[in-house]
Amino acid sequence: MTEHYLTDERRMIQEVARDFTLREVLPVANELDPIQGDIPLELRNKMGELGYFGIRMPEEHGGMGLGVFEYALVAEELARGWMSVASIIARAGSLMSVGGWPLEKRQELTRKAAQGEYLSAVALSEPDVGSDLKAVSCRATLDGDEWVIAGNKYWCTFADGADYIQLLARTDGAQAEAAGFTGTRSFIIEKPRGELPENCNGSAIPKIGYFGWKTWELAFDGTRIPKDNVITGGESSGSDGFKNAVNWLNAARVHTAARSIGLARGALEDAIAYSHERVQFGVPIADFQETRFKLARMASEVEASRQLMYHVATLMDGGERADKEASMVKWQASEMAERVTSDALQILGGAGYTKLHAVERHWRDARLTKIFEGTSEIQLRIISDRMLGRPGSRTA
């Protein structure tokens, strides 16, 4: 099946990304993750030159014009080095759906995004709102020609380093209703890179992993943005903020599966190398049956998740509805990644529990994949709802 999926072009994309990761990403990760340093701009620029920020953007907008499959292929390779680097490519998106902007502005900023020069932070969750995005309480009130944003957001990674924040908020006020803005909407908050927006305070959330960039809690207190800075449709799938977020999450879940597989593969490869080097009782531990069987199970799990990811990405690129399948691969790959990275750490023993080896980084980051882009429990809810229908007792 791999031969069926991996065309010559895809193999070339994979090989280039693999080489780039080993030469450029892995050394940076080994140096900066232990000290919680940020992803260097120089590395981001090199990724932009390779086109990694614009993999799925149309060629006429400066992108590569490829699909979810190629996006996942590159993400797996980058995550093998540092999951945060594999994650930052998701911060580039088309701005063509900001219908109120002049066409020239939308095209210019989309081209910049495709080169990694105009990146976003996404503000969906709130202190009391995680998976239930319909319950967001952050408000956007229309005041003349401006929206006024008020409320709190949580888990907003890259809020400081991004060029803009894409925020999900509930529209409020008579002016908004009269203008036809009802329900939840996605807003664009432009800002200087390296700063938070005006009238927005924030603090970095202390994390156990996912280093390379900061994750923020934000408090908007009268942040003003132009009336046109709202996703209204245009070349997008629609104007409903909640539906846009859900549609975005399907591709994001395949992306998370790819990152999970990359993490697990990195841990597996490091464990194999260590098993040949580590000698106990006069022989390499690779000769011990328990080690051999553990590695065999780990490799099988990684490959099974990869093949499911290839299948789901192919469905999505073919235009088929794949929300159930996207949840399946996200659940399968993230659960797998935690098991495999934990087994790899066990093979390294005490050495694995130090920051002298990358396995502990892969292990910490793998644990997050079961939480973000929808928890494992939410994925099982989506899958079971598609299979069985929603239970009659559920109201939402």
What does this protein structure show overall?
The model is unreliable at 234-239 (pLDDT under 50). The chain is α+β, with helices and mostly antiparallel strands and 396 residues long. It has helices at residues 2-5, 8-32, 41-49, 68-81, 83-88, 103-114, 174-178, 241-277, 289-317, 323-348, 359-369, 376-388, and strands spanning 120-123, 139-143, 146-157, 164-172, 184-190, 200-204, 215-226, 279-280, 283-284. The strands form two sheets. Strands 1, 2, 3, 4, 5, 6 and 7 form a seven-stranded mixed sheet that branches. A two-stranded antiparallel ribbon has the order 8-9. The relative contact order is 0.11. It has three domains: 2-91, Orthogonal Bundle (Butyryl-Coa Dehydrogenase, subunit A, domain 1); 119-238, Beta Barrel (Butyryl-CoA Dehydrogenase, subunit A, domain 2), CATH 2.40.110; 242-388, Up-down Bundle (Butyryl-CoA Dehydrogenase, subunit A, domain 3), CATH 1.20.140.
Search tags:
Butyryl-Coa Dehydrogenase, subunit A, domain 1; 9 strands; seven-stranded mixed β-sheet; alpha+beta; Butyryl-CoA Dehydrogenase, subunit A, domain 3; 3 domains
CATH superfamily of the largest domain: Butyryl-CoA Dehydrogenase, subunit A, domain 3
Span of the ends, CA to CA: 39 Å
Q: What is the fold named in CATH at topology level of the largest domain?
A: Butyryl-CoA Dehydrogenase, subunit A, domain 3
Unreliably modeled segments? 234-239
Strand percent estimate = 5-15%
Q: Based on the structure given, which CATH architecture of the largest domain is correct?
A: Up-down Bundle
Average the pLDDT over all residues and give the rounded result: 93
Which sheet architecture does the biggest sheet show?
Answer: 7 strands, mixed
Total DSSP helices: 12
